């Protein structure tokens, strides 16, 4: 059977959120943001196990929360690095011990991805080795320097990359190792694979799969959570 491991990165500082603490512990309806994300991944049938990457200072707390919330798919909680890319690399090294075929790399700060989209991503990775969830860009994007517009990009070809991003394990490890040798940095993992000249496929995702980045996202997250709880209630009661 195909072994699919999730790597959930939550070792950031959440500076843009401005809470003065890691946004992973932001309370959403009585539960920390990271626990919302992990509880969802715990339920995904295609996922064999989860590696969680957190800041050194949060290691004990997250291990305790994992136990408390019965997150049995979490096989390890490991320490991350200064940048997201380093946290992912450390997560990949740890996940590699149990020899996964495919890894799905996901932001701890994205609590609303669905099983349907994760399943579609796994299918794409089985077929093509590398894929990302993404949504079409809705705004018109300008490239500007010092407030002066240089050009307008052709919107019909623009996609906003999300996570999870999925890869055959050997491919993403090679991409991270090469990036480290060449001191290359990127804000997502797909870019490291693209830089090797390898194909990465887009799997259309959902606008609800938001990353909580700035304070306005908290309100949005609470309303998405309410909507998904109502949806669950409706399913349970047959409404
Ligand atoms: N050194 C880092 C930086 C980021 N992340 C994780 O990567 C995800 C996406 O990053 P982002 O939203 O930028 O989070 P932060 O780095 O925490 O936020 P900021 O850039 O505002 O400080 C988050 O779940 C974050 O915890 C990580 O594991 N290790
Ligand atoms: C990986 C990512 O979530 C894709 O959208 C994003 O690039 C990482 O977060 P950041 O806000 O760029 O740090």
Describe the structure.
By secondary structure, this protein is an alpha/beta fold. The protein has a single domain, classed as Spore Coat Polysaccharide Biosynthesis Protein SpsA, Chain A, CATH 3.90.550. 36% of the residues lie in helices and 25% in strands. It contains 7 helices and 11 strands. The strands form 3 sheets. Strands 5-4-1-6-10-7-11 form a 7-stranded mixed sheet, with helices on both faces. Strand 4, helix 2 and strand 5 form a beta-alpha-beta unit. Helix 3 packs across helix 5. The protein is globular. The model has no long low-confidence stretch (mean pLDDT 96). Bound molecules: cytidine-5'-triphosphate (CTP) and ligand LQXTBERG. The site of the ligand C[C@](O)(CO)[C@H](O)COP(=O)(O)O has 9 residues, from strand 10. This is 2-C-methyl-D-erythritol 4-phosphate cytidylyltransferase. GO terms for molecular function: 2-C-methyl-D-erythritol 4-phosphate cytidylyltransferase activity. It is an enzyme of class 2 (transferase). Keywords: Isoprene biosynthesis, Nucleotidyltransferase, Transferase.
Care to give the gist of this entry?
The protein is an alpha/beta fold. The protein has helices at 33-42, 59-68, 84-96, 115-128, 169-181, 190-194, 216-237; strands at 4-10, 27-28, 31-32, 49-54, 74-79, 102-107, 130-136, 142-145, 148-152, 159-168, 201-204.
Name the hetero compounds present.
cytidine-5'-triphosphate, the ligand C[C@](O)(CO)[C@H](O)COP(=O)(O)O
Q: pLDDT under 50 segments (min length 5)?
A: none
Task: Tell me the strand percentage band.
Answer: 15-25%
Per the CATH scheme, the topology name is Spore Coat Polysaccharide Biosynthesis Protein SpsA, Chain A
**Derived structural class:** alpha/beta
User: What's the Cα radius of gyration?
Assistant: 18 Å
* Spatial strand arrangement across the major sheet: 5-4-1-6-10-7-11
Q: Count of helical segments?
A: 7
- End-to-end separation: 37 Å
How much helical structure, as a percent, in the residues?
A: 25-40%
- CATH class group: Alpha Beta
């Amino acid at each position: 059977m195909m072994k699919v491991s999730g790597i959930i990165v939550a070792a950031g500082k959440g500076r843009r959120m401005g809470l003065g603490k890691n946004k992973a512990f932001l309370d959403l309806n009585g539960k920390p943001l990271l626990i919302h994300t992990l509880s969802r991944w715990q339920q995904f049938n295609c996922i064999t196990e989860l590696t969680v990457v957190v800041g050194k200072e949060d290691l004990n707390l997250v291990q305790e929360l994992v136990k408390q919330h019965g997150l049995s798919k979490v096989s390890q909680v490991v320490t991350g690095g200064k940048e997201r890319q380093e946290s992912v690399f450390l997560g990949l090294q740890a996940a590699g011990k149990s020899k996964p075929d495919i890894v799905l790399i996901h932001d701890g700060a994205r609590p609303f991805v669905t099983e349907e989209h994760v399943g579609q991503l796994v299918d794409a990775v089985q077929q093509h080795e590398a894929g990302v969830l993404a949504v079409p860009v809705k705004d018109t994007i300008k490239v500007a320097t010092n407030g002066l517009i240089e050009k307008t990009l052709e919107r019909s070809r623009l996609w906003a990359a999300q996570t999870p991003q999925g890869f055959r394990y050997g491919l993403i490890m090679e991409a991270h190792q090469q990036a480290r040798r060449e001191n290359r940095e990127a804000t997502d993992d797909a870019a490291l694979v693209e830089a090797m000249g390898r194909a990465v496929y887009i799997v259309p995702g959902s606008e609800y799969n938001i990353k909580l980045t700035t304070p306005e996202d908290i309100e949005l997250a609470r309303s998405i959570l309410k909507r998904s709880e109502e949806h669950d209630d409706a399913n349970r009661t047959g409404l």
